[in-house]
Design goal:
This protein has 196 residues and is mainly alpha-helical. It folds into two domains: 4-135, ACP-like (Non-ribosomal Peptide Synthetase Peptidyl Carrier Protein, Chain A); 139-184, no CATH class. It is built from seven helices and five strands; from the N terminus they run ααααββααβββα. The strands form two sheets. The chain has a three-stranded antiparallel sheet with strand order 3-4-5, with no helix packed on it. The protein has a two-stranded antiparallel sheet with strand order 1-2. The longest helix is centred in the N-terminal third of the chain and has 16 residues, at 9-24. It is globular, with a radius of gyration of 19 Å.
Length: 196
């Protein structure tokens, strides 16, 4: 298993430049961390899927197929983020959490929904890889139910999950009480910060 700390931001950025460069037939040095994937580089929907597949293969992580906006809308409801084609106050706060690499003044209440894709940068995907590595290598120190430390990695293919949705990260089982502990979801940190 790959150590989540074994990749520096620069290494992840360099691999992303190579991946994006191969898709768009650009030299890696033509791609900057702050390049907008849509506005500057012209990526299309199919290109984003290609990036995701290559990142999953390279880093042995799972990356959500839907973009952060779609995932938040599915969890909180579209009206929480967008009303009349414009970003709500709450939507602006959430996007600032989702895109920490973006200058906060670029995200504001009333921003047109059509402008949101321009926020996606190469650095956005560096952060996605880092979060994917955190989820993939999550491991509890003890059972959150009984406090026992005798935990084993569960075989997700043999376990049943709520709504039949297999989690992205690992699952640990407590040998003492049979408690199942599921890795935090890809977006749990976003929801945690949003509720503060």
């Amino acid at each position: 298993m790959v150590d989540k700390n074994s990749f520096s931001d620069k290494e992840i950025l360099d691999s992303l430049k190579e991946i994006i460069g191969s898709i768009l037939m650009l030299e890696p040095d033509e791609i900057a961390a702050n390049s907008s994937l849509v506005d500057n580089l012209g990526l299309e929907s199919i290109d984003f899927l290609d990036i995701v597949f290559q990142l999953e293969e390279k880093y042995d992580i799972a990356v959500p197929r839907r973009n952060p906006i779609q995932r938040i809308e599915a969890s909180l409801g579209e009206e929480e983020l967008i009303q009349g084609g414009k970003l709500t106050r709450k939507g602006a706060k959430l996007l600032k959490i989702v895109f920490p690499e973006v200058e906060p003044s670029r995200i504001y209440e009333g921003m047109q929904e059509s402008e949101i894709p321009s926020l996606l940068t190469v650095q956005t995907y560096v952060n996605v890889v880092k979060r994917g590595l955190e989820v993939a290598h999550w491991q509890p120190e003890q059972c959150d139910k009984c406090g026992a430390e005798n935990l084993v990695l569960g075989d997700k293919d043999k376990l049943e999950f709520p709504n039949d949705v297999m989690p992205f990260g690992p699952v640990f089982l407590c040998k003492a009480c049979d408690n199942m502990m599921i890795a935090p979801s890809f977006d749990d940190l976003i929801y945690e910060k949003a509720s503060e």
